[in-house]
Amino acid sequence: MRVHDLLPPPRMLMTPGPAEADPRVLRAMAAPLLGQFDPYFTGLMNETMELLRLVFQTQNHWAFVVDGTSRAGLEAVLVSLIEPGDRVLVPIIGRFGHLLTEIAERCGADVATLPCPWGTVVEPDALKAALQQHRPKLVAMVHGETSTGMMQPLEWAGALCREHGALLVVDAVATLGGVPVKVDEWGLDACIAGTQKCLGAPSGSAPVTFNDRAAALIERRRHVEQGLRGPQHRPGPGPRIRSNYFDLAMLMDYWSPVRINHHTEAGSMLYAVREALRCVAEEGLEARFARHRLHGEAVVAGVTAMGLELFGDRQHKMPQVTPVLIPEGVNGDQVRAMLLEDFGIEIATSFGPLHGKVWRIGTMGYSAQKRNVLLLLGALATCLRAQGFRADGAAAVDAALAVYRAAGA
Ligand SMILES: *Cc1c(COP(=O)(O)O)cnc(C)c1O
Q: Residue 265: what pLDDT?
């Protein structure tokens, strides 16, 4: 049998994930493998924890990665914190709120939801009323809801949850490394991120952090695996965590000096995450946030100049995702297919009620570059004209260039 060589076609990834990986990250992934308890490797694990604290803006001791895509991080946090029968509240502003609901239900929670129309965010009064009504042990919510392009303000959320005795768990999968995620200042008890969005790495690893309040609940449920258990290991009084792979108590042991064996750390992914975080630290958080804002503004200027309209509440738009209404009479999937085949550019459609109605343009991580934005705008206008929509590509590119010029970029 002869199987062809691996030669992926050149692509510009302008979706809300996966975004392009920084070449430095890809290079790090090609480094030789090490044993997971090799002192050099455990040193890399410790450095990764340190870098994660910086990027999550936290003093939490616990900051490490769960192997698996971002939803592995969501599952690990939720299954380790939720005991069957616990009341959980999930505000839903789009598809990923439904995902949190689904995971919490599978953990055996009694889930109450706070549904909001897609394209909007949750207001403090609505969350307060729901907290008073449902008295949850835990609130799980999404920071950057990529399905709608909306960013949920969280400055007030931690304090509000704490007043009502609830833990706050936040899905910052699409936001960490692109916009501020202030874990300590906002009072987030646990926060989960993604690597393939604003961090510029492939998918396959889920950064998580949680504070001592969350850690205490997990510690109560510590049950070291039979076969690894020694006389010093007393099972905690709480019910055993329902997943072995996602048992944060065991992962905490693995990510601490005791290094009790659990899974085999995905070594090449750890190299990738460490390098991606090193890139963030070198660029600087504020500069990185400014870069995401700038390219988001350039996309908005470009698409509006070509006669397109944005979806959702502009005030709460994520800088790194631009949701665009597909014009009447234009076949959204045909435009995306032409963009990919003729220009090698990928943009995203949307989910559920927005499928076929909204495109989502991502400017995340390494994809957030002037060259990408300008090429995309020119190409998109051409693809729209092929569908009979009179889009002015030159005006779009000029409008984006004006944004760059005004910013001195
Ligand atoms: C992409 C995304 C996820 C899922 O991430 P995977 O890495 O595909 O598991 C979850 N939440 C949000 C907000 C996302 O944007």
A: 93
Q: Identify the segments of the chain with pLDDT beneath 50.
A: none
**pLDDT for the residue 347:** 98
Q: Which of 146, 170, 246, 320 maximizes ligand 1 atoms within 8 Å of its Cβ, making it the mutation to test the pocket?
A: 146
Distance, in Å, from the CA atom of 276 to the CA atom of 293, rounded to the nearest integer, reads: 19
| Amino acid letter for position 288 | R
Parallel/antiparallel/unpaired status of strands 190-192 and 12-13: unpaired
Return d(Cα 251, Cα 261) in angstroms, integer.
9
The pair of structure tokens assigned to 156 is 């007030």
Mean residue pLDDT of the chain comes to: 97
Whole-number pLDDT of residue 104: 98
Using DSSP, how many helices (H) and how many strands (E) does the chain show?
13, 13
Contact 331, 165 (CB under 8 A): no
Hunting for tokens 């958080």 — which residue is that? Answer: 285
Residue with tokens 């070594």: 267
If you measure from the C-alpha of residue 65 to the centroid of ligand 1, how many angstroms do you get, rounded to a whole number? 15
Can you read off the two tokens belonging to residue 157? 């959320």
- Indicate the top mutation candidate among 196, 197, 364 to test ligand 1's pocket, ranked by most ligand atoms within 8 A of CB: 197
Residues in the ligand 1 pocket, defined by CB under 6 Å? 16-17, 69-71, 96, 142, 144, 146, 171, 173-174, 194, 203
What pTM, to 2 d.p., does this model score?
0.97
Query: How far is residue 80's CA from residue 238's CA, in Å, rounded to a whole number?
Result: 11
Q: Give the distance (Å) from ligand 1 centre to CA of residue 365.
A: 15
Q: Would you state the structure tokens that stand for residue 127, as one six-digit string?
A: 């969350």
Per-residue pLDDT, 225: 87
Which one-letter amino acid corresponds to residue 304? T
